[in-house]
């Protein structure tokens, strides 16, 4: 049985982690996530991706620690590689990815949310990167993406001190973009995804590339790329359609090309 369910609603793909009781990650589910994202990248009718957890308690509790119980370095190396490949593929999704955090997001469960573009958390959610408590460290982007989002101080509190934070605190420090009532994360994520569908998919993809380039580059290096990608949009049908629809005072019909 598939442990990540796919449901396409209009231009939005909903991925539901369904590995009870805590939606933990395994080599199989990580490989499935990577394959699903690659397939969605090739599906030009999909503009946004929403990922959430099955049930009312867990978004995801991260890796199944039984995998590391015997201290096998070969297993550790394989899992680190598989985690990295899956979440980096998610981070590179050409559209907009939204994490609907419906409960506990721990370790790799928080890292999959960090790989998304936007995070919406329900008010009861708890977030943490507790790997150091069991002699490990976040190996799927956690040390880098968390620090990028919330700054070095809070990244150190969460990773080095093992601090678990509430959804409200996550909002305060910039780890999530919105907090909603219990049970409302998926609804709000889908509402936001509908807004994405009103944008040119080609333009969104180019904008996302530029925003994420800021993580590892400098403004001076990225500004020429910004102008280059602006001009490149004139090779797309969406650019012509977008301007024409505006001038004709109608809604555009995007083709994602």
What is the CATH T-level topology of the largest domain?
2-enoyl-CoA Hydratase, Chain A, domain 1
Radius of gyration computed on alpha carbons:
19 Å
What's the CATH H-level homologous superfamily of the largest domain? 2-enoyl-CoA Hydratase, Chain A, domain 1
Number of helices: 10
What is the element string, with H for helices and E for strands? EEHEEHEEHEEHHEHEHHHH
Overall geometric form:
globular
Poorly predicted residue ranges:
none
Gap between N and C termini: 35 Å
What's the level 1 CATH class of the largest domain? Alpha Beta
Q: Total strand count, please? A: 10
Strand share of the residues? 15-25%
Tell me what the CATH architecture of the largest domain is. Alpha-Beta Complex
Strand order of the largest sheet: 1-2-3-5-7-10
| Main β-sheet description | 6 strands, mixed
- Overall pLDDT: 91
Query: How many domain units?
Result: 2
Q: State the helical fraction.
A: 40-55%
Short characterization:
The protein is an alpha/beta fold. 45% of the residues lie in helices and 17% in strands. The longest helix is centred in the N-terminal third of the chain and has 19 residues, at 73-91.
Q: How would you describe what is shown here?
A:
This protein has 257 residues and is an alpha/beta fold. It has 2 domains: 193 residues, 2-enoyl-CoA Hydratase, Chain A, domain 1 (Alpha-Beta Complex), CATH 3.90.226; 47 residues, Lyase 2-enoyl-coa Hydratase, Chain  A, domain 2 (Orthogonal Bundle). Helices cover 45% and strands 17% of the residues. The strands form 2 sheets. A 6-stranded mixed sheet has the order 1-2-3-5-7-10, sandwiched between helices. Helix 8 packs antiparallel against helix 9. The longest helix has 19 residues. The chain is globular and about 65 Å long. The mean pLDDT is 91.
């Amino acid at each position: 049985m598939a442990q990540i369910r796919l449901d396409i609603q209009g231009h939005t793909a909903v991925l539901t982690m369904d590995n009870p009781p805590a939606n933990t990650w395994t080599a199989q589910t990580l490989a499935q996530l990577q394959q699903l994202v690659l397939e969605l990248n090739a599906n030009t009718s999909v503009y946004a991706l929403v990922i959430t957890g099955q049930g009312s308690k867990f978004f995801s509790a991260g890796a199944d620690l039984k995998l590391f119980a015997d201290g096998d370095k070969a297993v550790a190396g394989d899992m680190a590689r598989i985690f990295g490949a899956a979440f980096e593929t998610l981070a590179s999704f050409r559209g907009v990815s939204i994490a609907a955090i419906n409960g506990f997001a721990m370790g790799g469960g928080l890292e999959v949310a960090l790989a998304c573009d936007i995070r919406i958390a329900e008010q009861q959610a708890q977030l943490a990167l507790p790997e150091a408590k069991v002699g490990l460290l976040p190996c799927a982007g956690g040390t880098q993406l968390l620090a990028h989002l919330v700054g070095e101080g809070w990244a150190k509190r969460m990773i080095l001190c093992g601090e678990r934070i509430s959804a409200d605190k996550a909002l305060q420090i910039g780890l999530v973009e919105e907090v909603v009532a219990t049970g409302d994360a998926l609804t709000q994520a889908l509402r936001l995804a509908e807004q994405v569908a009103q944008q040119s998919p080609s333009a969104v993809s180019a904008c996302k590339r530029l925003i994420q380039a800021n993580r590892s580059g400098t403004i001076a290096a990225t500004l020429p790329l910004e102008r280059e990608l602006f001009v490149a949009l004139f090779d797309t049908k969406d650019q012509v359609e977008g301007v024409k629809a505006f001038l004709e005072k109608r809604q555009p019909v995007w083709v994602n090309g």
